[in-house]
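So, can you check this record?

>
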Amino acid sequence: MVTFFGVLVGLVLGLTGAGGSVFAVPLLMLGLGWTIAQAMPVALIAVCAAATLGTLVAWNASFVRYRAAIVMALVGCLTAPLGLRLADRLPDSWLTAAFAAVLVVVALRLIVQARGNPAETQVVRATVAGDGKPARGPLCRANETTGRLVWTSRCAMVISSIGATTGFLSGMLGVGGGFVIVPALRAGTVLSMHSAVATSLMNIALTSAGTVVTSMAMGRTLPWMVALPFVGGSLAGMLAGRRIAPRIAGPRLQQSFAAVMFCAAAILIFRAAR
């Protein structure tokens, strides 16, 4: 059962342009009866493994802005302990409700993207390749010759802010943060959808790994007998997503994921209310 849950997480991580990792925690909570604190490190290590695989696949096939990913991850590793400490102090019902709110936000974003930019729904993590149409982000420009970001103080602030937000959410709720990274990069920089997705993968891998290490250093335990099959399943799901993504990725798939997220959010809210 745990391996099957991992396969589902890998599939969703591979087939969504942002936020597929938010399925990991609800699956572990609802499937195994865990709390968020118990599910968080296992979910993050699986997301880290799948995102690392996705980064390796995208490295030669797309434009991974590794400097931006590293800066976001470094800042994220500084804010992740804040999220971990807050999670330790809040009641589990509050954390569950907060996670449900995140699911609703991600679902709404998927619906808006599917309706407003259907072409972007084809750019999924499992098959991101090449470079697409640049965004019109007013804060981070790119060198017209090399295509690399021009690192002004304003651009550094934008990238650091994204990293700080995702790191905090990673520590507090155990999410990779792709649902924040991709739209934020698209809004604040000139990165194309392809580059934003590929860069987010690298950042998710680094930030998730850093958060797991920090979590264990702060005394949380990682049940390896559950984590290992879950990770194995997520990698298998990611590879499967790479094969089937060209056939099924699109607006309808994202809308279907959004519907599942709404259902999961409703279940978590009911659980929190109890």
